[in-house]
Amino acid sequence: VQLQASGGGLVQAGGSLRLSCAVSGLAFFSRYSMGWFRQAPGKEREFVAAINWSGSSTNHADSVKGRFTISRDNAKNTVYLQMDSLEPEDTAVYYCATSRLSFAQTLSSLKDYMHWGQGTQVTVSS
Which among 37, 49, 115, 117 is least surrounded, fewest beta carbons within 10 Å? Predict the structure, then answer.
């Protein structure tokens, strides 16, 4: 299973980015919940957002609620993270991941995820 994250970059505070995560080698992608996590230098990896297998339910961390939106396209085996009103505190490497169990709901714990992408750097300047 491979997860290819893309869309990161350098943006000024208040700007927007859209991250994509393309999943390959996973049978029945549409059966698995997906999550986005981030890790800033010197900090632990933290939950950002999750979406259930069908896309009918989402969960966002309080720190990004109202600014970030997770979505998925099961026909393309891809999950997205739309990031608006970016703040310097959002600077981190962003990782996507697939859930361990099929037909799970939105999951916010790292231990609930099986496969991880390589990460994409997001840098927000003030």
Answer: 115
**How far is CA 45 from its chain centroid?**
12
Q: What is the mean pLDDT of residues 56-75?
A: 97
| Number of CB atoms found within 10 A of residue 99's CB | 22
- Which DSSP state fits 38? E
112 pLDDT above the threshold of 90: yes
Side chain identity at residue 15, one-letter code = G
Distance CA 104, CA 59 (A): 13
Contact (CB, 8 A) for 117 and 94: no
Q: Which two tokens stand for residue 95?
A: 């990782």
What are 45's two structure tokens? 């990896």
pLDDT of residue 18: 98
Q: Percentage of the chain with pLDDT > 90?
A: 95
89 φ, ψ (degrees, to nearest 5) = -65, -15
Terminal CA-CA length for the chain: 37
Q: Which is it for strands 9-12 and 120-125: parallel, antiparallel or unpaired?
A: parallel
Beta strand residue intervals within 7-112, DSSP E: 9-12, 17-24, 32-39, 46-51, 58-60, 68-73, 78-83, 92-102
